[in-house]
Give the backbone structure.
Amino acid sequence: MRYVRAALARIAGLFTGHNADDDLRDELQAHLDMETAENIRRGMNPDEARRQALLASGGLTVAAQAVRDRRGLPWLEGVASDLRYAVRALRHSPAFTVVVVITLALGIGANTAIFSVVRAVLLKPLPHRDGDRLVYLRQSMDGPGGANINFSVPEIRDFRAATPSLGGIAEYSPWFGTLQGDNNPVRIDIGLVTGNFFEVMGLSPVLGRLTTPGDDGPGVPAVMVLTHDFWMKRYGGDSSIVGKQVRLDGMSLTVIGVVEPAPWFPDRMEALANMVISSHHLSALMVEGRSHRMTEMIARLAPGAAVEQARTEMAAVYARMQREHTDAYNPGAHYRVAVIPFKEALGERARLTLWLLMAAAAFVMIISAANVANLTLMRGVRRQHELVVRAALGAGLGRLRRLLLAENLLLTLMGAAVGVVIAVGGVRLLTSFAERYSPRANEIHLDVVVLGFALALSVSLALALSFIASLPREGAFAAAIAAGMRRISGDLRKHRLQRGLVVAQVAVSVVLLAGAGLLTRTMMELSQVNTGLRTEEVLAIDVPLLQVGGGPSNGTDPAVWFRAIMQSDAAAKVRYDQMRREIAALPGVTEVGLGSSVPLRGSSTRFEAKAEGKALPVGEPAVSPDFRTANPEYFSAAGIPLVKGRAFGATDGFGAGKVVIINQTLADRWFPGEDPIGKRVAWTGEVLKFSPISPEWRTIVGIVGNTQDGGQDAPPRAVMFMPFAQELSLGGVVVIRADSNAAELAAAATRIVRRIAPAAPIQSVLTVRQIKDQSVAPQRLNAVLVSSFGILAVIIAAVGIGGVLAFSVSARTNEIGIRMSLGADSGRVQRMILREGGVLLAIGLVLGAGGAFFAAGVIRGLLFGVAPHDPVTFIGVAGMMAAIGIMACWIPALRAARIDPAITMRST
Amino acid sequence: MADKLDVQQGTLALMILKTLEGLGPLHGYGVARRIEETSRHRLKLNYGTLYPALLKLEQEGFIKAEWSQSENNRRAKFYSLTAAGRKQLARETREWNETADLIAAFLTPRRETP
């Protein structure tokens, strides 16, 4: 009660200060008068009486201040006056203020922007209900494409039966189709899901309903749930879409609802549908084929169960499955299953890159903080005089600290304000970058937490800056004042902290530069990888005309469906041929080819294949080449070199003998040391039954070179080409080679395609150069971001080392003057200063090289074509840092050399 | 001449309360004089010690202040004890006596028969 009352009185005191001050003055004056009167009564003369009274009072001003401190909340009033003072002080040194604010803004801005990405992509809880209970299951094996081979339905059935720690297992398979609409058909990615999918994922509808187990199995109506993004993009958030019918590849589906925004994994999805739209998914092969793996698994941990428990149970079931079904698990391929928390799986691709950027940004922060610290220290030394005077006038050390804190807070908060503006721009840039890596990129926002991060960063920085500054020690004032303020600054040797900060700046810059160097070399190596194509002046228009559909409806003969597909395919080919002829007539076009795949992009269709007379070695997984088609001009139009044999000809028509062209990788795999021309190969495997592709033997007529499909660092893939006219075309790409700038043809060629196929979705119109650039884009962005951080760091560090030396020179002006008057020539003085900087630089370089050596090992996974400890990069980086550092030292050294001893001595 | 003692923190409040209880409403000067006299001038109160202590007691509600005329017609601020102040004085007196007894018991050499 008593404290509450006192506190209230003090808060009230904040606002009554002015009146109370008058009151207090009167009271103290009354006291003094009474005491004076008493002294006179005792016989002193009036002057002496007053003097004695004043002596006894202990100082009216001090007493008034003591009362004032007691009255309100002196801390708060102090802060206000400190801030007022700080504003004044900073206005007096605008250059210092601007340099510090910009330095801090860059550091805080970079950190805030990257932190907002890290938070959204890696740290923030998932939007799913109890999202931390979700686990992603992944089956892998050795060999190309083995990193994630998905699960088969029988496998999932076994897991479901024997893993009590998994409370629910949702299945989905990626699928795609063309959604027809008024004049703008669009190819969409669909997830085929089990009815329990949304229940397990913990997602709610924003509109309508989601699928339930009632939507499973054959004979149920086909239904579709739209993702929030797609609903907004395609339907503009129109709620009347629920309950309507949409056409997908000729099938009719009912839109039953819209699901809340959520990240989709492993790939973006526009909509989710039940399995009934794909007869394949309900077929015996899918349901019974243990090796028919095309389903993703996400599970929810049962209440109370831990991930570890799920792992143990999964491992036990999996071991049993492998024992019981030896045919489905080739022991040579090392089949394995991983249980990964869903949030981690979502962040998998982004993690290393993001932490790299976060670390780079943190390094920039360290360097800029060190620089600001140095500037503050130097300013502190120049202000020593002022501080000593303040201390002598009665300001306690705590009070001086607070004064510094107010100034530093003002600086860092201004830095944070500008930094947040920088971060807003940075976040926009980084979001488009993060989209390549993470399904959660659309969750990136500068929100309260991120702003809190910037604020916390600046406040802790201000605190640190205020406490590293050395204040005059109590008792040292007298000595300082007696010394006439002359030797207070001392020489550089005494300023260990400043020197330490410079060394740290150099070291951290070297680490950043080394990272930047390695990533830049990675980017260069990648762009220099031979794509395998002869020219980049190629434009590819991806325009699928064929609608494969989900398959025969229940009960119909698959052969009937296949015939329908082949008819549709034949019609599509007529239109492709029309496009080819019309585009070939455009000026500047050299050659036009037709095929199933965009050059440098892989095809998603793969079947198992076999070569006549070649038994699969035991323990090796079967070969699954990409299935592609090409017309006679495709190879030369795309610039794919023919290594051996012939390209397809007009004679390889629909009824003619079946022929194929294989790529070098497949030739090496099947026919090492032999001539493959004339040998026979065939598609095989169970999945083939679900396609109209025939398993008959086909004769190899040619071998083409490998191309870098799916990325410059992608391992070469096995590819088998069929004549476009002879086989199901499977999608359709018009490949246009131009004699010069292929990109200029885009508009005219697209117009022709649009006119001939107005209802077809145009997937992409890209030149080969653009495709190649896109595949290197993530690495380029890595390199650009880390390099800009590196350059920033070097500039700040150079300013730092130069500044400290300049300060040292100005503090040692007298000493240098004396040295020169005693005979040291200017060269000697210059060398002395250079040596001083050189030592700092050298220590920083050595420490930095050590740090870089370690850091390079950490980012090994992001490098390509360059060893993590690449000596050329390391030497180059060290040389660059040394050169810039020496240049930064030269300016103060020259200034030292120009010191005129006469002037110096006279001014002492 | 021995140095005058600085008044101990915490005991000053008690002295002020006791003084006001004995003498009734009193101005700051009177309080200071009274305390110095009671201590036989071993204590010396400067303004910077006295007035913050008075303000603190006022904020805590143990004393109240009022401007009025002094004995020789001078305007002065008079402090007087409140009911809460009386209670506080009784409590602090008791506590102080107990503490003093306790300390005395420790400091007095014990004469124990073996």
Chain B has one domain: 5-107. The helical segments of chain B are 11-23, 28-38, 47-59, 83-107. Chain B touches chain A through 24 residues (CB under 8 Å).
